[in-house]
Amino acid sequence: MLPDIRGYTREDFWMRPASETNRQHHQTINTKDTQLLDLEGYGPLLLAGARLTVYVGVCAMMIAVLLGLIGMWCKFSRSVFVRFLADTYTTVIRGVPELVLILLVFYGVPTLIQDVSALIGRPVYVSLDPFTAGVATIGFIYGAFSTEVFRGAYLAVPKGQIEAAQACGMSRALTFRRIVLPQMMRFALPGLGNVWMVLIKATALISVIQLPELMRSADIASRNTRKPFTFFFAASLIYLAITIISNLVQQWAEKRAAKGIRRA
Fold it and tell me: Residue 123's domain is classified under what CATH number?
C-alpha cells in the first residue's frame, strides 16, 4: 500500500530533507571535533596533569635556586672541608642519572630507615608521599647544576667592586647582599633559564613513582584507549608549549635585568 502524499508540496520532498540532512551532518562534524579536542574524555585529565607538572617544576626550582646559592657560597668558603663537601655534592649528583636518584629516594630511603630502626630495636614504618619525594629529589638534583651556574655568575662580577665595598668597611655578608647578589643574578639568568628548561622536562620521570603529572596522565589515557601515539603526542605538545612560554618569560626577564646596562 502506497503512503498518502496528499497535502505535500515538492519543497517537502526536496528542501526539508536536504536541510535536515545538512543539519545532522554539521552536528556530526561538531561532535567529532569536540571529541577530538576533548581527547575522548581524557583532555581534562591531561590538563590537570599539566598543572601538576608546572607546580612540581616551580617548587623544585625554588629548592634548586636555594641549594644553588648555598652551594655557591660553600664553594667560596675559607674552610677546606666545606669546599670539599660542595665539590662532592656537585660532582656526585651531576654524575648519577635522575631516575636512579628518584627511585633511590622514594623506595630506598624509607627501606633504609625501617631497617636501621629495626636494628636498634625501635621499628618504625616510613612512607614518602610521591609529590614530596619527587619535588625534593628534582630540586636536590638541579641544585647541583644551579650551584655551578651561580659560581660562574659570581666570578663574572668585577673584583674591583668587591674590593671597593670592602674598602668602604662593608662586611662580607653586606657586600654579597648589596653588591654581588644583584649583579650575579643578572649574569645567572641565562643559566637558570636553561636549568628550568631541563628541570620541567625531567618532571616526567616522577611518573615512575605514581605521581599523576602530565606523563602519568598520558600513560593512563593511552592504556585505557589503546591509543599511545595520540596521548603521548598530545603530552609532547603540552611540554613544548610550556617550554615556549618559559623561553618568552626568560627573554623578558633578561631584557629587564639588562635595562640601563651599557653595551660594549
Answer: 1.10.3720.10
